[in-house]
Design a protein that fits this description.
Blueprint lengths: L18 E4 L3 H8 L3 E9 L2 E8 L2 E6 L5 H13 L4 E10 L9 E9 L3 H5 L10 H13 L4 E8 L8 H10 L4 E3 L2 H11 L2 E10 L5 H9 L3 H20 L3
Parallel strand pairs: 1-4, 1-5, 5-9, 6-7, 7-8
Antiparallel strand pairs: 2-3, 3-4, 5-8, 6-9
Helix pairs in contact: 2-6, 4-8
The chain binds 1-O-phosphono-alpha-D-ribofuranose and uracil.
């Protein structure tokens, strides 16, 4: 039996779902499941927790990817082997511009590859970009729901507690990046390399020039504004899947 399951996500190759939401946090996968009909917990191994269910008649999967690009890439590679072809990250991020308020969504148009994983796949010149149609579907969904969103560049890094982070943040603010996360760049690069559609929606949980660790702590304590951003990104991504051609 176990030979038929992926080694990390513990899902079978004949999964029969082509759309997946990718939160970092396993608890966020559980939150997605509350929006699905016939939600079925398929697997929970390490940081990878997966539910399958139906949203407005569309079969969807949610798999948490953990923290960082390395574990995200493992999940994405294995999901692709299971037949998934449309992947939307529903993540959290820090704001790099003052107009990006807590609970607003960032629809990522491209990512700065400051992670280690994506460069292990391909040279840094290779762009980290989402699929145009999937990103457009996310934008239409957010607009239809009147959800506050910003479109722009995200910087994906691999070191949340680095001493030089304030310096890096202000550098990328000066280059007009709007958000900071850890997984989007690797997701986008893998999408292009493997020929699958990817997009990334980020919920602002750390305010511009705030103490990032303190604000992430408030989100972990279920602070209301961050939780409403989480709900917004879940609904935006689910609605986007109902708008795309399979
Ligand atoms: O909330 P998730 O989706 O995990 O995303 C962000 O939160 C984690 C850091 O707190 C990193 O994974 C970062 O990218
Ligand atoms: O600034 C932030 C906030 C959340 N997650 C990140 O990766 N960076």
């Amino acid at each position: 039996m176990s030979e038929n399951l992926m080694p990390h996500i513990r899902l079978p190759k004949d999964l029969d779902v082509d759309c997946a939401l990718l939160p970092g946090d396993p608890a966020r996968a559980d939150a997605v499941a509350t929006h699905l009909e016939d939600a079925e917990l398929l697997a929970s191994n390490r940081e990878f927790r997966s539910w399958r269910g139906t949203y407005k008649g569309k079969k969807v999967l949610v798999t948490s990817t953990g923290i960082g690009a390395a574990s995200c890439a493992i999940a994405v590679e294995e999901l692709i082997q299971c037949g998934v072809r449309n992947l939307i990250r529903i993540g959290s991020c820090g704001a790099l511009q003052p107009e990006c308020a807590l609970g607003d969504l960032i629809l990522v148009t491209g990512a700065i590859r400051d992670d280690g994983t994506s460069t292990a796949y391909v040279e840094a010149q290779y762009p980290a970009i989402p699929d145009f149609d999937l990103l457009s579907a996310c934008r239409e969904s957010a607009a239809a729901k009147k959800i506050p969103y910003h479109m722009g560049i995200c910087r994906s890094h691999s070191c949340l507690y680095g001493e030089r982070n304030p310096e890096f943040y202000s550098y990328w603010t000066g280059k007009r990046a709007v958000a900071s996360d850890m997984e989007t760049a690797a997701l986008f690069v893998l999408g292009s390399l493997r020929g699958v559609r990817t997009a990334s929606i980020l919920n602002v949980v750390a305010a511009y020039q705030s103490s990032v660790a303190e604000d992430i702590g408030k989100y972990a304590s279920k602070e209301a504004t961050s939780m409403s951003g989480e709900e917004r990104e879940i609904l935006t991504a689910l609605e986007a899947f109902t708008r795309i051609q399979a």
